[in-house]
Amino acid sequence: MEKKYTSEQFWKLYEKLAQELKDTLFAEETGNNIYEICKRNEVEEDLEQIIDFVGQVLVGVLPPDQFQNTLEQELNLEKETAKKVAQEINRFVFYPVKPLLEDLYKIEINPPAGEKQKIEVKIETETEKKEISSAKDTYREPVE
Fold first, then answer.
1. CB under 8 Å to 9, separation ≥6 — which residues?
2. 25-61 pLDDT per residue, tens
3. 123 within a domain of the structure (yes/no)
4. What pTM was computed for the model?
5. Phi and psi (nearest 5°) for 101?
6. What are 60-101's pLDDT values in tens digits?
7. C-beta separation of 59 from 105 below 8 A
8. Which of these, 51, 61, 62, lies nearest to 25 by C-alpha position?
C-alpha cells in the first residue's frame, strides 16, 4: 500500500523540485498524454489515480521503477495493461525529464523495454583509409 501524503507535504516536496519537473507536473501536454494513454488502453476510469501516481513520481515519492507495480497493485490492472500504460507514460512523460528524475532519485533509469538503441562503431586503420581513398579515385597513384 502506498504512503499517503498530505497536501502540505506535497507542496513542500514541490518547492524543492527543479523548475523543469514543476513545469512537467502541471503541463497541459502531460495531462493530454496521460489522458490519451488511458483512453488507448481502456483505463479511463482510473485516470485520476494514474495522474496522482505520475505526480508522485515527478515529486520524488514513487520511484519510476515501481510505477508499473503500483498500477497493478493499487488499481488492480492486469499485468499486461499496467505494463503498456507504464511504458507509454515512461516514454511520453518521464523520459523527457529522465536526467532530472535520475538526479532526484539518485538512480539510473533504464529506457523502457523495446527502446534500446544499438550503436555500431567502426574504426578504420590508416591502411584501410588509404585503400578506400585510393579505390575511389582511379586517376591517383598510390602513395608509398
1. none
2. 999 999 999 999 999 999 999 999 999 999 999 998 9
3. no
4. 0.70
5. -65, -40
6. 899 999 999 999 999 999 999 999 999 999 999 999 999 988
7. no
8. 51
* Cβ-contact 61, 5 below 8 angstroms: yes
Residue corresponding to grid cell 529506457? 111
Domain count, the chain: 1
In a domain, 127, yes or no: no
The verdict on residue 71 lying in a domain is: yes
Contacts (Cβ under 8 Å, ≥6 apart) of 134? 140, 142
Q: What 3-state class would DSSP assign to 106?
A: coil
The residue type at 96:
P
Contacts of 28 (CB under 8 A, 6+ apart): none
Nearest to 36 by CA among 91, 106, 107, 115: 91
CB-count exposure of residue 97 (10 Å: 0-12, 13-18, 19+): buried
d(CA 47, CA 31): 10
Are residues 53 and 37 in contact, defined by beta-carbon separation less than 8 angstroms? no
Which domain covers residue 41, as residue numbers? 7-115
Give alpha helix (H) positions in 41-114. Answer: 47-59, 67-75, 79-89, 98-105
The answer to whether position 66 is within a domain reads yes
